[in-house]
């Protein structure tokens, strides 16, 4: 048993491995995809800046590519964030919340998260369908907009399912979020 007076940092390199196959797969796929998109965003930004200031020739469609990659990175990381329950929160009352209430609070929050992500998924699907029907394109690149929105929709749906999986974990007696790449 751990010493309660021990304030040292946990070994996070081992902690994420204790999350189970489902959690590890989510973190690997979601985190890997987000990392690849982040690298692409960095490369596009570098090429655009160097082209703009060194050669007076910015990357054609650079702003639109950055917009697409920003949407992709946010939604690519969403499944991992949902599984870790690592969303931005206000923890003013966490110190005052009795431990026995925490699982119930997390069940409520995961149910609300699933409902919100499900609603976002549905709204994005409607938007993607409208964009597809209208053949909306990016102004400069002339790429269809609908695939980007479908991508966002699918990952929102995955986020909703993960929130429901979290809720089931709490219903089965889990005491806290699954560890992850924190």
Compact overview of the structure:
The protein has 182 residues and is an all-alpha fold. The protein has helices at 12-15, 20-54, 62-84, 102-134, 146-171.
Describe the overall structure:
- By secondary structure, the protein is mainly alpha-helical.
- It has one domain.
- The protein is 66% helix and 0% strand.
- It contains 5 helices and no strands.
- The protein has helices at 12-15, 20-54, 62-84, 102-134, 146-171.
- Helix 2 packs antiparallel against helix 3 (62-84) and helix 3 packs parallel to helix 5.
- The radius of gyration is 20 Å and the shape is elongated.
Key traits:
5 helices, 182 residues, single chain, 66% helix, elongated, mainly alpha, 0% strand
Write the layout of secondary structure elements.
Blueprint: H1 12-15, H2 20-54, H3 62-84, H4 102-134, H5 146-171
Helix pairs in contact: 2-3, 3-5, 4-5
Order of helices and strands: HHHHH
According to DSSP, the number of beta strands is 0
Roughly how many Å is the radius of gyration?
A: 20 Å
Distance between the termini: 23 Å
Residue windows where pLDDT falls under 50 for at least 5 positions: none
Shape: elongated
Total helices: the number is 5
Estimate the strand proportion.
Answer: under 5%
Largest sheet: none
Number of domains: 1
Which structural class best describes the helix and strand composition?
A: mainly alpha
Mean pLDDT: 86
